[in-house]
Specification:
5% of the residues lie in helices and 39% in strands. It has a single domain, classed as Sandwich (Jelly Rolls), CATH 2.60.120. The protein is globular, with a radius of gyration of 16 Å. Strands 1, 2, 4, 5, 7, 10, 11 and 13 form an eight-stranded antiparallel sheet that branches. The model has no long low-confidence stretch (mean pLDDT 89). It contains two helices and 13 strands, in the order E-E-E-E-E-E-E-E-E-H-H-E-E-E-E.
Amino acid sequence: MSSQKSSHHKADSKMEQDNNRKAWISQPSGLNFVWGGDSRYWVIPKEPRMPAELKMVSWLEVTGSFDKIEPGKTYRIGFKISFKPDATGWDKAPVFMSAKIGKKGKTVWKRIKSVSQNFGILKGGSEPVNIPDESDGLFEILVSPTALNQDTKLQFGLYEVWTGRWKTGLLIHEAFVQEV
């Protein structure tokens, strides 16, 4: 039996409640990173409040889940990101977010244009920003009022898997879920 290490990073912690922001927060260690188990591609911090650093990938897939949702309520989802000054590959990258309720739920997609449109400013060393931003519009998902006794885990993600171009320098500080 092989004890080979996975190429991917699997979430190892739950979301924490932030009462000031009225949100649930997932630190990078609480997210799943495709290629996150290989330090050539990602550096996933063990320390709290430190961002995950993208070294280099052509397939960006960062996912998380949240199970404290209630039927009939709406939830806003986002990520807090920044870029290293030497980040590359994001100026024409079609970044998307997705969300669905339960394994069999319908996936909702949203293009996050602010990443490519503001890439020059963002990689200039700005403070971390929330995506989607105001120019993208909010990303919200409604949990069906009839979802009682069904799989109601909110699954969400951040993706750029379409161009095949190498991307570097993304810092993911957290993901967040807020009841609206």
